[in-house]
Amino acid sequence: MTTPTIELKPSAHPLAAAEREAILASPGFGRHFTDHMVTIKWTEGRGWHDGQLVPYAPIPLDPATNVLHYAQEIFEGLKAYRQPDGSVATFRPDQNAKRFQRSARRLAMPELPVETFVEACDALVRQDQDWVPAHGGEESLYLRPFMIATEVGLGVKPANEYLFIVIASPAGAYFPGGVKPVSIWVSEDRVRAVPGGMGDAKTGGNYAASLLAQAEAAAKGCDQVCYLDAVEHQWVEELGGMNLYFVYGNKIVTPTLTGSILEGVTRDSLLAVARDLGYESEEGRVSAAQWQRDAENGTLTEVFACGTAAVITPVGTVKRASAEWKQSGSEPGEVTLRLRQALLDIQRGTAADQHGWMHKI
Ligand code: COI
């Protein structure tokens, strides 16, 4: 694989400092973007080329561009955190790079070398470092690397041209309520992914497929939808954009990766962080019926969702067509909060990085 260098062509007109500071004071999620983006092209026969850091701008696309019709697209999400000494570090970017390669394979796209993925993220953060929020708060700089098929034509086939882009967005809490328990609708008739499908790839189609079920969850008064497996319709898989953890006293359990569940970087990190804190952690199967039974008999003490954007978010009320139960009261559980704090302490540089997860820019 070729590894292109990234040519710097910075903006002559970055946003004024006062306007940027006003955005950083209350960034929300995914609403504002930094001054630059990185783009790298891939062409059949030539490989990766023309890596550039350029001003953030719309990308012109022919109406017959392949991705607009057949959704050959993949993406990632990772965050850059301001460290106590003012420097900036990203969290496990190599893991996102490797998942990006797995997603590319699944969607018949070219694989970007891990070091090019990481260098593209580094170059953008380095250039737009003033956009990384201050140390210590909930805020960070969310990076969104993605790749689209750019061949023009309506033939259904792997494209012969692609564009990789990284953009960045200052991010506060993903859920407007902050670290408050969210309510879950367990969908019984809609599935997110099927065996042999692309549930373990991070591709826009999985998120498009989740929108109707998410709207149905909202109509039932719930914040998020939870999917069951597509065959037996009983095994808990994941939420629309987050993995799930079940807390049984001193043990945390997350659904085993079956091929239809996205392998979250936060999910994986928590298996280790939990052990560091003295909890047992494991992968296993949990059915919706078991969830209700164990919540009601008190053995299932907490449930939380996790992901890069949402970090760790506690689950409160759970509803399905035939039942409704309370997983927790209005406050997050003790284990949920401890794990959340331990993970954030590593990411913010206030705890020892004993796994070597932080990548200094
Ligand atoms: C993330 O947590 O980074 C995600 O990709 C979830 C969502 C914002 C799409």
UniProtKB/TrEMBL annotation:
Extract the GO molecular function terms from the UniProt entry. Answer: branched-chain-amino-acid transaminase activity
Q: In which pathway does it act?
A: Amino-acid biosynthesis; L-isoleucine biosynthesis; L-isoleucine from 2-oxobutanoate: step 4/4; Amino-acid biosynthesis; L-leucine biosynthesis; L-leucine from 3-methyl-2-oxobutanoate: step 4/4; Amino-acid biosynthesis; L-valine biosynthesis; L-valine from pyruvate: step 4/4
> Which keywords belong to this entry?
Amino-acid biosynthesis, Aminotransferase, Branched-chain amino acid biosynthesis, Pyridoxal phosphate, Transferase
The protein's enzyme class: transferase
Listed PANTHER family: BRANCHED-CHAIN-AMINO-ACID AMINOTRANSFERASE, SUBGROUP IIII AMINOTRANSFERASE
This entry's Enzyme Commission designation comes to 2.6.1.42
Q: Which organism is it from?
A: Streptomyces griseochromogenes
| Protein known as | Branched-chain-amino-acid aminotransferase
The Gene Ontology biological process annotation of the record reads: isoleucine biosynthetic process; L-leucine biosynthetic process; L-valine biosynthetic process
Which family does the UniProt entry place this protein in?
Answer: Belongs to the class-IV pyridoxal-phosphate-dependent aminotransferase family.
Can you tell which superkingdom this protein's organism belongs to?
Bacteria
Stored Pfam families: Aminotran_4
Catalytic reactions on record: L-isoleucine + 2-oxoglutarate = (S)-3-methyl-2-oxopentanoate + L-glutamate; L-valine + 2-oxoglutarate = 3-methyl-2-oxobutanoate + L-glutamate; L-leucine + 2-oxoglutarate = 4-methyl-2-oxopentanoate + L-glutamate
Q: Which residues carry this modification: N6-(pyridoxal phosphate)lysine?
A: 202
Q: Which residues form the signal peptide?
A: none
> Which cofactor is essential here?
pyridoxal 5'-phosphate
The major lineage groups are: Bacteria, Bacillati, Actinomycetota, Actinomycetes, Kitasatosporales
